[in-house]
Design a protein that fits this description.
It is a single chain. By secondary structure, this protein is α+β, with helices and mostly antiparallel strands. The chain contains seven helices and eleven strands. Strand 6 (181-188) and strand 7 (194-201) form a beta hairpin. The protein is globular.
Length: 262
Amino acid sequence: MKHLLTAFAFTALLAPAAHAEDILSILERQSQNEQPSPPALNPYNYTVDVIMSGKEGKDILPPFTARLLIDPSAEPQTRATIVSVSSPEHPDEFKEFLKEIQNPESSAEDLAEEFWCESGDNELFEGDEVSADSFTVLSESETEAVIKPNLALMAQIMMDGDDDDMSKSERKMMKKMMERLDGEFVLSKPDARLKRLKIWLTRPMTMAVIAKIKEMDITQSCAMAPNGFTYRDSMTMHVKAKALGMGMEQDMDIKISGLTLR
């Protein structure tokens, strides 16, 4: 009997887990029930570490690093406090990054929507939009699933949501870019939360007569905040382009940490 039990236990370890629910079933079940939403106002202050590097023509630009302390509840001009920078000369890309954070037209609610992964990245997998055409399952295990989203459908959802804010030319550019993008999303199981994503340009794209994007890829990961919702804790971006006859490359690495409840 002892040997029989040992053999049975060994067989059970090797056998596939029949109880593991597949991601399609999880998403279908969740789409039928209203999921909890993250706070409309972000209750946390947090630290942002930025690393920027690149090339202009044959010149390699020195890396630029910065650490910021962000208070989403503060007035726009005081939301970001610069803790340290590697150089007093700020690259244009960093100025644009700061400008985006301090944009007076961005409310505290807008900042919270950008902060939480559940606010936007999961829209393709929730509600009425979930269908067999939304994505393709590439692989899955008991703990996660790798899926390929239908980026054309995602673009349509985004454009429908921003219908009043996008001009005809912007909608055309969005459609053009989505036709050239591919990507993979990783969802955790059994909660179907977004863990990470990667999106890349499959072929060059002309933005204007004098500008062309040759390469682009973006990665993002999500981490669990103390309140049980996930936030965008890291993002990397690589762009290789050509403008006015000169080639250029840009790499940006952003990490969010040190969440502190106000």
